[in-house]
Write a structure and sequence with these properties.
The chain is α+β, with helices and mostly antiparallel strands. Helices cover 34% and strands 23% of the residues. It is built from 4 helices and 5 strands. The chain has a 5-stranded mixed beta sheet. Helix 1 (10-23) packs antiparallel against helix 3.
Amino acid sequence: MSLSPDLLTEEEYFQDQLAFIEENYKELNNLYVSSTPLNEQVKDFLAIYVREVEKYTALLGRMGSDKPPLKVFIGTKVTVSFDGDEDREDYHICLPDHSNPDNGVISFISPVGRQLLLKNTGDQISLSVPNGHLNVTIEKITFSDQYSL
């Protein structure tokens, strides 16, 4: 799938994303199950994601130019701040085939990606990382203009 958020409206972008997920549901679900420790797995992970994207696109269609608040979805850039620190970091959420962690491009099923997915601006979360936990606040969510799905 090679969709660029710049070439499509948000609604078109997410409709295409939903079609891609539907076509590749089994493979994406298998990747999630195989890459996520059992104690961290969420039942119906992809189905929950699809429902949230469907809700968002329905709101987009009804609200016109007034956009609803954006959640962390595949194809978004998330800016987080680290509690007690002035540092900020951007993460571009993508499909597994497009991840490039060294450049801040992370898969939605990566350990950090799946913890950020479906979060909202202002949410404070504790990210589980290999050396412990990082408390972060989601400062901003935008569509990524650099990375396609």
